[in-house]
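Input (structure):
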């Protein structure tokens, strides 16, 4: 097993750093968006990380592992939708949107690879049973 903890996963690290970037960029969103777009994009971006962490703890059960990774993928896709709204409303520059959207596309790709081969992530102690 290459990673001992969810924090060592590249997908988790990218998701975490992307959520931090979203937090920083949303500080400049208008006050009237505080309880709608700002809150939604922050929640969905953070949820990607939380679902990856939960998936990691459930990896000895492949169906549960894939289910939590699927939840992370859905949250990452939701984040992409909020990024599109932020771009349309002029809260993000084209470059900011592209950078963040590219990150979330990459996160979704990494999650898809993990979901396609869940057996690769089962702890050795669990797979020996």
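Output (sequence):
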């Amino acid at each position: 097993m290459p990673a001992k903890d969810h924090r060592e996963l590249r997908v988790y690290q990218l998701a975490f750093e992307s959520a931090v970037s979203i937090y920083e960029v949303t500080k400049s969103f208008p006050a009237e968006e505080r309880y709608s777009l700002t809150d939604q994009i922050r929640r969905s971006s953070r949820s990607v990380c939380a679902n990856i962490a939960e998936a990691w703890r459930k990896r000895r059960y492949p169906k549960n592992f894939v289910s939590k990774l699927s939840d992370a993928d859905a949250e990452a896709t939701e984040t992409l939708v909020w990024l599109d709204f932020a771009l349309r409303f002029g809260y993000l520059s084209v470059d900011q949107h592209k950078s963040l959207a590219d990150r979330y596309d990459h996160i979704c790709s990494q999650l898809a690879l993990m979901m396609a081969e869940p057996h690769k992530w089962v702890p050795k102690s669990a797979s020996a049973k």
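Notes: Residues 62-88 form the longest helix (27 residues). The radius of gyration is 16 Å.
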